[in-house]
Write a structure and sequence with these properties.
mainly alpha; three-stranded antiparallel β-sheet; 9 helices; 3 strands
């Protein structure tokens, strides 16, 4: 048991050394949603990869699924290489089916965007279509820090991407966010998805 705990901590520390923001995403997106179980490694891949593709930059999906394996390796029989091979195949499949799930107009827009804008498109669109009874339809909230973490970039770069999406007409600001400062509680901006 002690070895399993140490292996889990080492896996998170390794992830933090390569991508500090991913540890927060791992604890926010993976740990509360997915329970590692014997003989259920593939089931994790089937559920987690489609979710992560819509929640973080595509480049981080394999990092996060690899960390899950490393944190729980005592439960799995297959080697890490097999786990990542299957996760990569699932990611490629999800990328294809995601594009196919878009209507013609959305697909044209998505194809015209650069890679970071596509990642932001998926994240914002997914948040906008989450059923939330306390929010108007097609609205979502997102801080530049949150988007920066999900994309692996600085908040100021995330702000530029959000402004670019606004400029394209994909989103509009419903309520401007408040920057965190001494004595001021930060608040994420609220946006409406327009596509």
């Amino acid at each position: 048991m002690l070895a399993n705990i140490k292996a889990s901590r080492e896996a998170r520390d390794l992830l933090a050394s390569k991508h500090p923001q991913l540890v927060r995403l791992y604890t926010e997106f993976i740990e509360p949603r997915y329970q590692a179980q014997e003989h259920a490694r593939n089931g994790f891949i089937v559920k987690a990869v489609p979710f992560l593709y819509r929640a973080v930059a595509a480049q981080f999906v394999l990092e996060l699924t690899g960390c899950f394996y490393d944190c729980n390796r005592a439960l799995f029989n297959d080697p890490r290489e097999q786990h990542l091979k299957e996760a990569k195949a699932m990611l490629e499949s999800v990328a294809r089916t995601y594009i196919e799930s878009l209507n013609e107009g959305e697909r044209s827009i998505y194809d015209a965007l650069n890679e970071q804008e596509r990642d932001a498109f998926r994240i914002c669109r997914d948040l906008a279509f989450l059923p939330e009874p306390e929010r108007p339809p097609c609205t979502f909230f997102m801080s530049f820090n949150q988007l920066g973490d999900r994309l692996g970039i600085f908040p100021v770069q995330a702000q530029r991407i959000m402004r670019q999406l606004q400029g394209y007409g994909l989103i509009v600001v419903v309520k401007k966010g408040i920057k965190r400062a001494v004595g001021v509680r930060g608040e994420a901006g609220i946006y409406q998805w327009m596509v």
